[in-house]
Design brief:
21% helix; single chain; alpha/beta; 351 residues; five-stranded parallel β-sheet
Amino acid sequence: MPLGRPSGVFRAVGGAVRVLDGLNRFGRRPPVLAVDRDLRLVVREVHAEAKDVVSLWLTRPGGSGQLPAWHPGAHLDVVAPSGRLRQYSLCGDPSDLGGYRIAVRRIADGLGGSREMHELRPGDELVVRGPRSAFPLIRAPRYLFVAGGIGITPILPMLRAVAATGADWQFVYAGRDRDSMPFLGEISRLEQSRVTIRTDVENGGPPTGAELLGHAPEGATGYLCGPPPMVTALRAAMDSAVDRAAPRLVALHTERFSAPPVVGGRPFVVELARSRRRLAVPADRSVLDVVSEAVPTVAYSCRQGFCGTCRTSVLSGDVEHHDRALTEPERDREMTICVSRAKGDQLVLDL
């Protein structure tokens, strides 16, 4: 565009700036408008994928219109009909933005979120937030992917993406038995020389860390989503590996689908200021576990201290912080109740 008179677009922008500047000079700032980041979606399809596992296909109302883009490893925060907030990995095709696919395992003795999701039917509406990622796939020449049961959900899009690049990769899919393992049909369409399906029933128990490490190409980057014992076992095998000069795994990225165990905790009491309820938090349970039983609608997502969804104002008491979400100034007045605990005998929370 030649220099000279400004275009209509630039004149309009300049006029808006002059108006805002005038408002600011007279002490009248324009109102701050709240940004609605909720996506209101509809359940279009429900499919049984394995024992106690269903997949849900979510689209915009009416079924038309693209959804925000995502990359392998991303997840949605899903607001269940009761108001419970839960986190589910996207396990569909990132190039298909006509809908999102998630999968949910029903936990019979859980807090109720998975049961609600299993009760959804086509036509039901949901509010979701995201997509966002705390488990991104990075570029590497070699990979080891490990999934335990429902941990296949973030791993499946990663496998498809890496298979398309020509990188060297191996995949171990572990579970109790084949009936409990979702998406085996889709995995069968991958290059089978790179895939190991391993069940506890067929092998006499869960895999050891050394066994999992043995599948890694030399110098691989690892991605694991599974239960805490599987994560712990593979990390221990990496730490005790004999050949540190040529490691099998140069890095291990993990995402848990269950909360990490509480180790070395001590009991204390949490008081909920709004209801004046006093709750005993045992040494081996998190504040979130205990509070969720009293307040089922309390928001949480990762249960590992990195997302900040469960951050709660602390009205009284000293906190032993274990999160990776809050800044130091925020820690003076807030805590993530999924992993942080009391330093003393009591905390008072703004709940």
